[in-house]
Amino acid sequence: MVTFTEGAKAHVVAFLAEDDEPLVVRIEVLDSSPLAPRYDLSLIEESEKEADDEISEHDGFEVVVPRSSVDLLRGASVDWVESLQGSGFKVENPNIVPIGDGVAEGPLTDRVKHVIDLQVNPAIASHGGSVRLVEVRSDVIYLEMQGGCQGCGMAAVTLAQGIRRILMESIPEIRDIVDITNHEAGADPYY
């Protein structure tokens, strides 16, 4: 089911030792969105386990996974990481690959890139903007707006009335287009 690295195990055991009551580790998927998957790793009392939870033993501690998260966590690993942003547990999950971690390739990807290069980017270049294809999953296109489009107050309109219209008219099999731009980080928005 879920594995724990040696560093993660050491921290779990240390946290468990701080409490007088016997506790178990509960891990679940709160949001399986490929845009920002979220997990909850917590310590719970034995009495909080549910009848349909999957339970496993990990070198001195018990791990509980709710039934709703079992398939999503199969093959996942938990590590302890320390960085400039802080320290904590990090879940590496082969079942939920964040957008942008995959390679953008294939016939549909090539067609989308072609339309972006020839129609979309020239149309928004006069405002100092551009669009980058981040990934194609099934028939959903994930784009990042750059330059003058990043943080522009009209970015949603540009996406809805310009970019979406051009791409969906040119490539009818596209079901949706998702903007994954961090608009708050825009350094020089057009508006």
Identify the CATH class of the largest domain.
Answer: Mainly Beta
CATH architecture label name of the largest domain: Sandwich
Number of strands: 10
The major sheet is characterized as: 4 strands, mixed
Rg of Cα set: 22 Å
The SSE string, one letter per element, is: EHEEEEHEEHEEHE
Helix content: 25-40%
> With helices defined by DSSP (H or I, 4 residues minimum), what is the helix count?
4
How does this structure look, described?
The structure is a single chain. The longest helix is centred in the middle third of the chain and has 18 residues, at 107-124. The chain is α/β, with parallel strands linked by helices. The strands form three sheets. It has a four-stranded mixed β-sheet with strand order 3-2-5-4. A three-stranded mixed β-sheet has the order 1-6-7. The chain has helices at residues 6-17, 70-73, 107-124, 155-170; strands at residues 3-4, 23-31, 38-45, 54-58, 61-65, 77-83, 86-92, 129-137, 140-147, 176-179. The protein contains four helices and ten strands; from the N terminus they run βαββββαββαββαβ. It folds into two domains: 3-92, HesB-like domain (Hypothetical Protein Aq_1857, Chain: A), CATH 2.60.300; 107-185, GMP Synthetase, Chain A, domain 3 (2-Layer Sandwich), CATH 3.30.300.130.
